[in-house]
Write a structure and sequence with these properties.
Layout: H1 3-9, H2 17-55, H3 59-83, H4 95-119, H5 128-155, H6 166-186, H7 193-216, H8 237-240, H9 247-263, E1 270-275, E2 281-286, H10 289-292, H11 299-307, E3 316-322, H12 326-334, E4 339-344, H13 351-358, E5 363-366, H14 373-388, H15 390-396
Parallel strand pairs: 3-4, 4-5
Antiparallel strand pairs: 1-2, 1-3
């Protein structure tokens, strides 16, 4: 995608207060991480030289240095790139997301301090309990970090775009358990080549597994991705992609609007407009044919009206319980909404509107009712309404094709 194309898709990025604040915080974090790890490496070099000087042999000190390298390189790379990930900036204006960043930073500092302690161990004057215990503490801190982050993400910070995968949890639990077995077998003994070799193998294997996980999967990948119909290439998604939105959750909100309209005697079609980065509701509404006497007030139009004079609709997702008609599809294209999630395509199937939107760069996501309860609920509600009030359904859709117009 060229620079000219990008400029047509979205306005140029400005370094506003949010970006500047995140940039400062992330740079401070990066500097602190580098400082702590530099201190750890200085301690490790001192300990290595002292071990060689005191004993005159190289095997034990070099094995210990190998363990230190495997652990520090693995955690340094992961922590550094995690805290400096640009995805954090997308929700930096959201206070809970900022708090999650600081929680992550706290755990990174704990691991960094443990690295300094690990680097200070001397192959001749340390014992198996000291070394293995420190390695276990490092793995345990990482396990606790992932659990705390996932819990906070679920119950409080729902809009954060950066999260750690469960795969890293299982990797660290495995590493922790293996090191625990080594500690149990050689507790309170002086370090020897056997202990160092076993710990080295465990940590280098963990390092290799970490590299494989990083290369084969995205550590911040959204779980339970929605099923999507085959898509045409979409330019807008390059710069306006929704960040880890829970499609079922927001479709349930749209369904709530549809159910509200149904309970009021109106057409059960609802929509919600969501800001991609924060997950906040920009606008929501439902069909107003009966309630307002307005045949143009479809669910999607009601959500757009509720959003009002929104500054930038180019970073939003529209959730609609029913496939958009041509009027609503035109409004979606007109206002540059980059992503539309549909709950029900069974009751108003029309590939023309889908193709119309996709050809204009809009990402269309159709939820599968067999795997998404919200989509099943949307479909069931409209099916019930059509059987109860077929004339009202026909009126909402313009009473069918005008027989006086020539066929296309």
């Amino acid at each position: 995608m060229t620079t000219d194309q990008l400029s047509k898709v979205s306005p140029p990025r400005r370094k506003g207060p949010t970006f500047v604040e995140f940039e400062r915080v992330s740079h401070c974090g990066e500097l602190l991480i580098v400082f702590f790890y530099a201190e750890a490496y200085e301690e490790a070099v001192k300990a290595l030289l002292k071990s060689v000087t005191d004993s005159g042999e190289y095997v034990g000190p070099l094995l210990l240095a190998g363990i230190f390298l495997a652990v520090t390189v693995r955690f340094f790379m992961g922590n550094f790139f995690h805290l400096s990930d640009p995805q954090w900036e997308k929700t930096w204006s959201h206070a809970p997301a900022r708090m999650l960043y600081y929680v992550d930073f706290f755990f990174v500092l704990l691991e960094s301090l443990a690295m300094i302690l690990l680097g200070s161990y001397n192959a001749e004057h340390s014992n198996a309990f000291q070394l293995t215990g420190t390695l276990i503490v490092i793995s345990a801190v990482d396990v606790l970090w992932i659990c705390v982050q996932r819990v906070l993400k679920r119950i409080w910070v729902k809009s954060s775009p950066v999260q750690l995968s469960w795969a890293w949890l299982w990797l660290n639990l495995t590493t922790l358990a293996l090191q625990g077995l080594v500690l149990y077998g050689f507790r309170a003994q002086a370090l020897n080549s056997t202990i160092l070799l076993e710990l080295g193998i465990i940590n280098w294997l963990a390092f290799a597994a970490d590299i494989v996980l990083t290369s084969r999967m995205d550590p911040w990948k959204k779980e339970n991705e929605s099923s999507v119909e085959p898509e045409a290439p979409c330019d807008r998604r390059e710069v306006t992609k929704a960040i880890h939105l829970d499609d079922d959750r927001y479709m349930n909100l749209a369904y709530g609007q549809a159910k509200k309209s149904y309970d009021e005697g109106g057409c059960p079609i609802g929509a919600v407009l969501i800001e991609n980065a924060t997950g906040e509701i920009v606008g929501q509404g439902h069909n107003g044919l009966v309630q307002k006497g307005d045949p143009t007030l479809h669910g999607e139009m009601a959500a757009l009206r509720a959003a009002g004079r929104t500054i930038d609709r180019h970073v939003t997702t529209l959730y609609t319980t029913l496939q958009p008609c041509f009027m609503c599809a035109g409004a979606i294209a007109q206002f540059g909404i980059p992503r539309v999630v549909i709950g029900d395509v069974k009751n108003a199937p029309n590939q023309e509107t889908i193709q119309f939107l996709r050809l204009r760069g809009v990402e269309i996501v159709v939820l599968d009712p067999t795997s998404h309860p919200s989509a099943a609920a949307c479909t069931a509600l409209v099916t019930r309404f059509k059987s109860e009030k077929p004339s009202l359904w026909s009126e909402d859709w313009g009473d069918g094709r005008n027989p006086h117009l020539p066929k296309a």
